[in-house]
Design a protein that fits this description.
Layout (H helix, E strand, L loop, with lengths): L6 E3 L7 E3 L3 E4 L4 E3 L11 E3 L5 E3 L18 E3 L4 E4 L8 E3 L4 E3 L3 E6 L6 H13 L2 H4 L13 H6 L1 E4 L2 H30 L1
Antiparallel strand pairs: 1-2, 3-12, 4-11, 5-6, 7-10, 8-9, 8-11
Length: 193
C-alpha cells in the first residue's frame, strides 16, 4: 500500500495522524450494541484471541469453562462485530462467521450505517488491544484481563476511511497474514524435518 500525500493530526490517543481525507468519530456514533434473544438450538459462538469468531465446534470444544446455565446469553448473527470485554486487550475481537449465541461478556455490535465495514473495525480494535491501548484503560487490578465494556468502547475515537479504502485495508492485511502463515508453516516443516 502506498503512503498518502497529506496527513492531519487527530485526537485518537493511539494514532498520531490519519490521512487528511479520513474522518474520526467516537464509536458510539458508529456502532449499536445489540442484545438479541437466543433461540432453541442456537449453538455457542466463541471469540478467540486470534480474532476468529465462530461456532465453538468449528475450532475446539475442550479447555473452556462451561456454564451450568446460560444466563444472559445473547444472539449473535453472521457479520456482527464481537468484542470480548475481558480479552480485547489480547486481540479477542472479530466478525462472526456464524449465527448462534454468546456469553454476556461479549459486546455484539452492528454498524449504524452501511459505509462501515465490520471487518475493518475488528482489525482496528484488535490493533488497539495488541498495541497496549486497551490495557492502558484498565480500572481494575486483575492482571491479564480487562473490562473493555461497550460503554468504554463507545467513548473511543476511531478512524473512518472511505468505504473503498476500508475494503482495501482489510484485503491487504488478510493477504499479508496468509503470506506470514504460509511462511510459519514452511519454517515449522523445515524445523521438524
Amino acid at each position: 500500500m502506498k503512503r498518502y500525500e497529506e496527513y492531519k493530526h487527530t485526537d485518537i490517543p493511539w494514532l498520531d495522524c490519519i490521512p487528511s481525507h479520513w474522518d474520526a468519530k467516537r464509536a458510539k456514533y458508529l456502532f449499536n450494541k445489540e442484545n438479541r434473544q437466543i433461540a432453541d438450538g442456537d449453538e455457542v459462538i466463541t471469540c478467540f484471541r486470534d480474532g476468529v469468531v465462530t461456532l465453538r465446534k468449528n475450532r475446539r470444544t475442550t479447555g473452556f469453562t462451561e456454564s451450568f446455565k446460560e444466563i444472559g446469553y445473547q444472539g449473535i448473527k453472521k457479520g456482527d462485530l464481537v468484542i470480548h470485554q475481558m480479552d480485547a486487550f489480547a486481540g479477542s475481537t472479530g466478525v462472526s462467521d456464524s449465527d448462534g449465541k454468546g456469553t454476556p461478556v461479549y459486546s455484539v455490535c452492528t454498524p449504524k450505517n452501511e459505509r462501515l465495514l465490520t471487518q475493518y473495525y475488528a482489525k482496528v480494535i484488535r490493533y488497539m488491544g495488541l498495541n497496549g491501548f486497551i490495557q492502558s484503560l484498565y480500572r481494575g487490578i486483575r492482571e491479564r484481563s480487562s473490562d473493555f465494556r461497550f460503554e468504554t468502547f463507545a467513548k473511543q475515537i476511531l478512524p473512518i476511511p472511505p468505504f473503498a479504502e476500508q475494503e482495501k485495508i482489510v484485503s491487504y492485511l488478510e493477504s499479508k497474514t496468509l503470506c506470514i502463515d504460509a511462511y510459519v508453516r514452511e519454517r515449522e516443516r523445515v524445523t521438524a524435518a
